Amino acid sequence: MKRALTHAFGGFRVIHWIALALIVTVVLASLLIEQVSSASPVAQTEARFLPVGSEGHLLGTDQYGRDILIRLIYGARIELFIAVSATLGALVLGTLLGVIGGYFGGFLGSLTMRAMDVLMTIPALMLALFVVTLYGPGSVTLTIGLTLIFMPSFARIAYGQTLSVREKEYVEADVLYGAKPARIIWRTILPNISAPIIVQFTLIIAASILLESGLSYLGLGVVAPTPSWGSMVAEATRFMASNPSVLMAPALAVVIMILAFSVLGDGLQRSLDPRSGVRNVRA
Predict the structure, then answer these.
(1) Which of 68, 155, 180, 215 lies at a 20 to 30 A Cα distance from 48?
(2) Distant-in-sequence, close-in-space partners of 44: CB < 8 Å, separation ≥ 6
(3) What is the structure's pLDDT at 1?
(4) Residue 97: strand, helix, or coil
(5) pLDDT of res. 3
(6) Closest-CA residue to 195 (of 262, 130, 272)
(7) Which residues of the chain fall short of a pLDDT of 70?
């Protein structure tokens, strides 16, 4: 995987670097906001509906006098934490199941993939609503729900890639030398199937942000008063006619971050696609 990552940025264009820079900037801002500003994202003031560009409030304030920019930055921390945590969970569990099913095949492979097929037949929003309704809204519940939703995507990719890789000569050589299955999977198969999984990781983060924002918009996401982009959009819809900037800021934040991760995924695909010159690697 380390060697695959060294090729990750080889095929990047300007648009891909811009997307990466934007993501890094948002991540750093969400992590360092407390060190550079003492403003609270939940503190209410009398300065309500200040316009964009107001002194001390770059993006203005909302209906409760809260600074919109500060809330966006704190909301980015929540959005990215949930999206990345859920995607990492889906990656680990899905890849593990897919590789095990693909390597051993037979009944185990069929059982693994049929279980993933069952999960994929359930609409994502319905499954998320079921989990949130069952255990209540909150970051942990959302993370678990999103992990279940996106786990089959990684499992199917890992399964298909493992089926093609396990017949390669270097895998057969490991078997002949008496290497244990766990070692073969960890040291030989995983490094050679990492490229499409890395690409899928960025795309699933974008999907997680969209779904989390939708659930928060419905009131089933992050619990108030913790700022969330989806809940900010929901609160601002009542004022979209008189104060559109209150709605546009969080809505654009969602759209821009989804586009940034999607563009980043496109760049990684260009770089890591075997047809682009990236060969199979072995740890």
Answers:
(1) 215
(2) 64, 65, 66
(3) 46
(4) helix
(5) 53
(6) 272
(7) 1-10, 273-283
What is the distance between the alpha carbons of residues 153 and 155, in angstroms, rounded to a whole number? Answer: 5
Contact assessment for residue 261 and residue 19, using Cβ atoms and an 8 Å cutoff: yes
pLDDT of residue 254: 95
Please state, in angstroms and rounded to a whole number, the distance separating the CA atoms of residues 280 and 164.
12
The answer to whether residues 146 and 127 touch, using CB atoms and an 8 Å cutoff, is no
Please say whether the beta carbons of 30 and 74 come within 8 A: yes
Residue type, 5: L
The whole-angstrom separation of Cα 100 and Cα 107 is 11
Measured distance CA(140)–CA(146) in Å, rounded: 10
Q: Please report the pLDDT score of residue 157 as a whole number.
A: 94
pTM: 0.88
Structure confidence by residue, pLDDT tens digits, 220-230: 888 777 889 99
Strand partners, 214: none
Q: Give Cα 43 to chain centroid, integer Å.
A: 29
Say what the pLDDT of residue 95 is. 96
Q: Which domains does the chain show, CATH number per domain? A: 2-276 (1.10.3720.10)
Q: Is 45 helix (H, G, I), strand (E, B) or coil?
A: coil
Q: Which residues face 67 on adjacent strands?
A: 61
Secondary structure (3-state) at 166 = coil
Please tell me the distance from the alpha carbon of residue 54 to that of residue 69, in angstroms, as a whole number: 12
